[in-house]
Amino acid sequence: MDFGIASVAVITAIVYIIGLIVKATKLPNKWIPVICGISGIVLGILALLIGMPDFPATDYLTAAAVGGVSGLAATGIDQTVKQLKN
């Protein structure tokens, strides 16, 4: 049984990079989770549309949910790393 962990990790990694790019701008940091969530949703739907192998969704709503959670996970990873450094 494969849950598409690799494809979800790819979305998380891409969104993490998007978050870093946004952080380098003058945009307030409070918008980073929102941007990451929306980016994840877009990437999840895109993954479904292009037929990403082993993607764990077969409809747009599930793809949006998987992408959104993956995008928000990128924010959580950033905060975990930040807390471990302190």
3D architecture notes:
This protein is 74% helix and 0% strand. It is mainly alpha-helical and 86 residues long. The longest helix has 26 residues, at 60-85. The model has no long low-confidence stretch (mean pLDDT 90).
Brief digest:
74% of the residues lie in helices and 0% in strands.
Q: Please state roughly what percent of the residues sit in beta strands, choosing from under 5%, 5-15%, 15-25%, 25-35%, 35-45% or over 45%.
A: under 5%
How does the overall form come out from the CA principal axes? Answer: globular
Total strand segments? 0
In this structure, how is the largest beta sheet organized?
A: none
Defining key terms:
86 residues; mainly alpha; 0% strand; 3 helices
Topology at a glance:
Elements: H1 5-23, H2 32-50, H3 60-85
